[in-house]
Amino acid sequence: MADTRLTLVKGDIAAQEVDAVVNAANSSLLGGGGVDGAIHRAGGPGILAACRELRAGPYPDGLPTGRAVATTAGRLPARWVIHTVGPVHGASADGAELLASCYARSLHVADELGARTVAFPAVSAGAYGWPLDDAARIAVHTVRQAVTAVAEARFVLFDDRAYEAFAAHLP
Ligand code: AR6
To answer: Which atom of ligand 1 is nearest to the CA of 14?
Structure first.
């Protein structure tokens, strides 16, 4: 397995030219605000249609927290969207493991797809209230520990504060 390169970019996750972008979704898979809103807006209705098929098929009750599943990326520059559901901060005792699981399982799905470049947002660090520094620590640590064929894991941060939080945890 090649060493995964961890990179940082300040910008919009929906604009990334990578094989797969990770969506900070909710269990319904049917859209929302933040990253989820940006991805569905930019990617067009094909993503929502694919999500509805997942709900009609393998995920009738929605995607559980900490899991990941791929769909088309519609009109995004990426080929796939990997939807993952972060934990709401403080909602359960195993939240940190669930947040780590979002990154580990997203990389696993990327490997199944053959995606070599993957862009991640700061999962749970927005509407779900996870403190940014801790979210960054869990994200960077989990991706660094992962055994994966992904060549580049790109963290895409929306503002300076998030960028600095992630930068502080990179080697
Ligand atoms: N590109 C990159 N980062 C972004 C973007 C963007 N376009 N927009 C926001 N961020 P959030 P969560 C940052 O709320 O906390 C949705 O409604 C944002 O500043 O998108 O996992 C879903 O449907 C923050 O640092 O995800 C769920 O219901 C980080 O991305 C819920 O929100 C994550 O913020 C998920 O909440």
So the answer is: 7
